[in-house]
């Protein structure tokens, strides 16, 4: 597996699937989409904190999709793209970490609710919290490798 950390050129086309920082696009899609799906399928209570989680997961999913297509189509060949890549993934880490913490707090409040109607929601929120932290970790690893690529370019 080739690493684009040592090169000065951003990958394009199918090389996106073989470079270390950009290899994380697909898992970011999967786990970010799972957060979005799990939160959307639950009883959204309270609205405001889980609204933030939905905003972050949908925003990062759409932006990562756009970012991925820009890389695939080769629109990332300017010298500014390594810095933009590192900055975007750092911002995604901060957003996802804030959403994961908020979702964990909401999940703890479901644990304290008695009754069976909230048990399924509690289980789905636990899964969403785990997926949110995994997505945060993936964006963090991508941000680190993107920063290394930026500094070496």
Automatic annotation (TrEMBL):
<keyword id="KW-0472">Membrane</keyword>
<keyword id="KW-0449">Lipoprotein</keyword>
<keyword id="KW-1133">Transmembrane helix</keyword>
<dbReference type="GO" id="GO:0019911">
    <property type="term" value="F:structural constituent of myelin sheath"/>
</dbReference>
<dbReference type="InterPro" id="IPR050578">
    <property type="entry name" value="MARVEL-CKLF_proteins"/>
</dbReference>
<feature type="domain" description="MARVEL">
    <location>
        <begin position="16"/>
        <end position="151"/>
    </location>
</feature>
<feature type="transmembrane region" description="Helical">
    <location>
        <begin position="20"/>
        <end position="39"/>
    </location>
</feature>
<feature type="transmembrane region" description="Helical">
    <location>
        <begin position="51"/>
        <end position="74"/>
    </location>
</feature>
<feature type="transmembrane region" description="Helical">
    <location>
        <begin position="86"/>
        <end position="106"/>
    </location>
</feature>
<dbReference type="Pfam" id="PF01284">
    <property type="entry name" value="MARVEL"/>
</dbReference>
<dbReference type="GO" id="GO:0016020">
    <property type="term" value="C:membrane"/>
</dbReference>
<dbReference type="InterPro" id="IPR013295">
    <property type="entry name" value="MAL"/>
</dbReference>
<dbReference type="GO" id="GO:0042552">
    <property type="term" value="P:myelination"/>
</dbReference>
<comment type="similarity">
    <text>Belongs to the MAL family.</text>
</comment>
<protein>
    <recommendedName>
        <fullName>Myelin and lymphocyte protein</fullName>
    </recommendedName>
</protein>
<dbReference type="InterPro" id="IPR008253">
    <property type="entry name" value="Marvel"/>
</dbReference>
<keyword id="KW-0812">Transmembrane</keyword>
<feature type="transmembrane region" description="Helical">
    <location>
        <begin position="126"/>
        <end position="148"/>
    </location>
</feature>
């Amino acid at each position: 597996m080739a690493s684009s950390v040592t090169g000065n050129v951003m990958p394009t086309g199918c090389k996106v699937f073989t470079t270390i920082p950009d290899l994380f696009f697909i898992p970011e899609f999967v786990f970010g989409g799972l957060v979005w799906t799990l939160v959307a399928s639950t009883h959204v209570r309270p609205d405001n904190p889980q609204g933030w989680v939905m905003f972050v997961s949908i925003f990062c999913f759409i932006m990562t999709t756009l970012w991925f297509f820009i890389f695939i189509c080769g629109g990332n060949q300017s010298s500014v793209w390594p810095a933009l890549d590192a900055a975007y993934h750092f911002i995604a880490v901060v957003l996802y970490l804030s959403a994961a913490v908020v979702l964990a707090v909401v999940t703890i409040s479901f644990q304290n609710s008695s009754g069976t109607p909230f048990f399924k929601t509690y289980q789905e929120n636990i899964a969403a919290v785990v997926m949110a932290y995994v997505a945060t970790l993936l964006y963090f690893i991508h941000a680190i490798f993107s920063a290394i690529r930026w500094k070496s370019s």
